[in-house]
Amino acid sequence: EYGGKMPCVCHNGEAHVETAEILAWIDREFPTASSLQPPVELAEQVKGFGVFPAIAQFTKNTDSAKDEELRVKLETSLRALSKRLESAGAYLQGAEPGLLDCDILPKLYVLSLATAHYKNFKLEDLKDGEA
Q1: How many CB atoms lie under 10 A from the CB of residue 99?
Q2: 98 Cβ neighbours under 8 A, 6+ residues apart
Q3: What pLDDT is attached to residue 52?
Q4: How confident is the model at residue 29, as a pLDDT?
Q5: Residues 46, 100 contacting (CB under 8 angstroms)
Q6: Minimal CA–CA distance to 100: which of 89, 108, 91?
Q7: Spatial CB neighbours of 40, under 8 Å, sequence gap ≥ 6
Q8: What is the pLDDT of residues 55-100, one digit of tens each?
Q9: What pairs with residue 14 in β-bridges?
Q10: Which positions ≥6 away from 10 have C-beta within 8 Å?
Q11: Checking CA distances to 21, which of 37, 73, 101, 107 falls within 20 to 30 Å?
């Protein structure tokens, strides 16, 4: 009913689609003492890691000649994400989970299922054990 857009959350008869829009809606609709929104510069930094584009490009690629290049790109983006987690604490925004964490989890879920299935690659496969 919503143009095939996923994920989709319906609340009080109103549909919210796409992860980023859903997370922004949750933050507006169910406010907490502190906003779940990350600082703009942090959000840009995490977006710059290119985790989801790297997952999508590698997973959807049908040209085996490009697989190695796309896998290296994916590994690079995952290492950048890992370094951010190491420096931030338990979550991307620090000690408490926030919208960045909620945004990245479905992407890592895609990696754990689709990429593992179609490309036989999972987080544990990162070279040198870095994850």
Answers
A1: 21
A2: 36, 37, 38, 91, 92
A3: 92
A4: 86
A5: yes
A6: 91
A7: none
A8: 999 999 999 999 999 999 999 999 999 999 999 888 998 888 888 8
A9: 11
A10: 16
A11: 73
In the block, tokens 């933050």 appear at: 27
User: What is the model's pTM?
Assistant: 0.77
108 CB burial (10 A radius; 0-12, 13-18, 19+): middle
CA pair distance 27, 68, nearest whole angstrom: 39
Identify any residues that bridge with 94 across adjacent strands, giving them in sequence order: 91
47-50: long-range pairs with CB below 8 Å, 24+: 49/77, 49/80, 49/81, 49/84, 50/77
Which residues touch 65 (CB under 8 Å, ≥6 apart)?
A: none
CB distance 72 to 63 below 8 Å: no
Q: Token pair of 51, please? A: 């985790």
Concatenating the DSSP letter of every residue in 81-111 gives HHHHHHHH-SBTTBSS--HHHHHHHHHHHHI
